Amino acid sequence: MPDNTFSFSFRTIGALLMVLTLSAPRVALTQSAGDYVIGAQDVLSIAVFDQTDLGGKYAVELDGSFTFPLVGRVQAGGLTIRSFEVELKKRLADGFFKNPQVTVAIEQYRSQRVFVTGEVRSPGAYPLTGDMTLIEALAKAGSTTSTASEEVVVVRGTKGVDGPIAIDAAGDKEILRFNLKDLQSGAAAVRNIDLRDGDTIYIARAELVYIFGEVKNPAAYPIKTDTTVLQALSLAGGVTPNGAINRTKIIRVVEGDKREISVKLTAIVQPGDTIMVPERYF
């Protein structure tokens, strides 16, 4: 009879490793959520073990407090979820229960917001839910439009602001810049930062080039960094059969003067360039 001892051991170890791998992200998320600072108008979900009558949903009032059964008014605003759990346990243990087991979670995030503006499909204010990252906020705003530039700007200022912070606004603020392509690719060198209350995320419109002459769809087109002449022409549907692609020129403003430049198809275009594809001679 074959010995299945080693086969069983390997299967057991593999199963244990899989369980540990799947469990690790959940632990990290729980720890991060516990650091969320409770604010006015947040709705808390509170459970007390073996005391179902005490559990329920409680809205934090404008002064940061609310009324909890048995203990009366409790202050939650300004405390993290874990800190408030500890405080509520102390209040319940003071003459009511022996070693009460209390869990607190956010049912509805209402006190903190971030603002997403610029070239996104659904700009506006969004609740800051726990450990929301920059990529998650962009996803909530429907992601970027086809005319978005590659730069993402996060303007970080005073907490609890009533509206988005302008990039050029005066005052004490921090400006963080990220490359959209790197964020979307998950590049290891790029930090997908956790957002803070009042952050404004701004995505500018991409710079334009103008493509005319013997192309299928002459018009203005947004370009990305390092776009070549050939790539720009492809945005316009390519050159028509009558186009002389080898004689393509760029009209560029240099120090206030218009200049006509003969270029190779591998040349990099600049914002504001006009690309002209002339007609073939025969």
Overview features:
5 helices; alpha+beta; Outer membrane lipoprotein wza fold like; 3 domains; disordered N terminus; 282 residues
Query: Taking all residues together, what is the mean pLDDT?
Result: 83
Order of helices and strands: HEEEEHEEEHEEHEEEHEEE
According to DSSP, the number of beta strands is 15
Question: What is the CA–CA distance across the termini?
Answer: 85 Å
Radius of gyration: 29 Å
Query: What's the main sheet like?
Result: 5 strands, mixed
Low-confidence stretches: 1-31
Going by CATH, the homologous superfamily of the largest domain would be Outer membrane lipoprotein wza domain like
CATH architecture of the largest domain: Roll
What is the SS-derived class?
Answer: alpha+beta
The shape, in one word, is rod-shaped
Number of DSSP helical runs: 5
By CATH reckoning, the class of the largest domain would read: Alpha Beta
Q: Could you please say which CATH topology of the largest domain applies here?
A: Outer membrane lipoprotein wza fold like
Q: How are the strands ordered across the major sheet?
A: 7-6-10-8-9
Number of domains: 3
Walk me through the structure.
This protein has 282 residues and is an alpha+beta fold. The chain has three domains: 43-108, wza like fold; 113-205, Roll (Outer membrane lipoprotein wza fold like), CATH 3.10.560; 208-277, Outer membrane lipoprotein wza fold like (Roll), CATH 3.10.560.10. The protein contains five helices and 15 strands. The strands form four sheets. Strands 7-6-10-8-9 form a five-stranded mixed sheet. Strands 12-11-15-13-14 form a five-stranded mixed sheet, with helices on one face. Strand 3 (65-68) and strand 4 (72-75) form a beta hairpin. The termini are far apart. Residues 1-31 have low confidence and may be disordered.
